[in-house]
Structure formats: C-alpha cells, structure tokens
Amino acid sequence: MSGLSEMELISEVRAKLEQETAENSFSGAVLIARNGAPIFAEAYGLADRERATRNTVQTRFRLGSINKMFTGVATLQLVEAGKLRLDDPLGKYLTDFPQKEVATKVTVEHLLNHTSGTGDVFGPEFDARRMQLRTLSDFAKLHEDKGLRFEPGIRWEYSNYGFILLGVLIEQVSGQTYYDYVRDHSFITTSLSIK
After folding, report:
1. pLDDT bracket for residue 188 (50, 70, 90)
2. In this structure, are strands 28-34 and 37-44 parallel, antiparallel, or unpaired?
3. Domains and CATH numbers, the chain
4. Does pTM surpass 0.90?
C-alpha cells in the first residue's frame, strides 16, 4: 500500500474491511492516524448478533490475552499490599476449590508464570457453553474438576485457565470484581498519574 495517497489508502482499507465484514471474518473498529491525528475511524460488523446491534467506534471489545498483563499487575499489587503471597497455594484463598490437587500444589507464582499444569479452558466444554459464560467464576467452573496436566513448576505451558484462576483470586482477596479492581487500580490510577 506504500505510494498510495491518503484517500487511496482509506479507500482500499474501507473496501477490505467491507469485504471481510460481509464474509463474517471481521467485526470491530479501526482507527488509522497520521502524526497523531485520526484520518480514519470506522466500525464494522455486529457487537451483538442476537440483537443485531452494530459496532460503533465507542463499542467496548474483549481484550483477550492482553488482559493477562492487567491480571499480572493486579496480582502483584495484591502481593505488594500483603493480601497474597507468591508461594501460597491456590487453596489458601479459594478454600472451597473442588480439585484438591490443584488447590494444594499450584501456587500464585505457578499461575503467573504459566508453570501451574492447569491446562487450558478452551475446548469442547467451552464451545458448548460459551454463550452462557458471563463471570470469571463461570469460566473457572468449566475446568475446576480437571486435575493437573503435569506437576506444577516443572515446565512451562501457556495456560488461559491459570489466568482465569488468578482473576478469581483477585476477586476473592480484593472484595471487588476483577474488572472493578483493574479499573480502580490500573486504569484510573494510571490516567490520574499521567496528568
């Protein structure tokens, strides 16, 4: 696309986004800026397919794995505040966690560094129930009866489920929902300190 004028670039981007939206391979918002000034800001697809609600440039989207960064920060803030310890087992905080091997062997640090052996939450159970999942507890319950895939601490394996458990821990020890805690202790705090 190099060598295109600004208008040609925008025209090509718009055409590509319209095509991908029609093919159901894109749904979202796009911002293109030049020298810090937006030159293109449009939304495509549906935010809610059941209600046929269209995306707007103000639509809030799930961040997916980018949330792991905020989960890590929140966890370490609670460690710094003395509400969590990295070497404590999960069961110290989630006392009714049904899988006792996970509750007693997996530490906060194992969850943070993807060495917990807890596996992934995605799979057939997730696919079958994904539209009913609303809270972190809902996600945690999908996998809570599964044992360890390997002994915690012996190897690294990316674990979405481990970070869901960290979110549940954050809720338990902070007394706030995960989203409220991150908003209050990361987003608001950060934006205030920048000013």
Report:
1. low
2. antiparallel
3. 6-54 (no CATH), 64-194 (3.40.710.10)
4. no
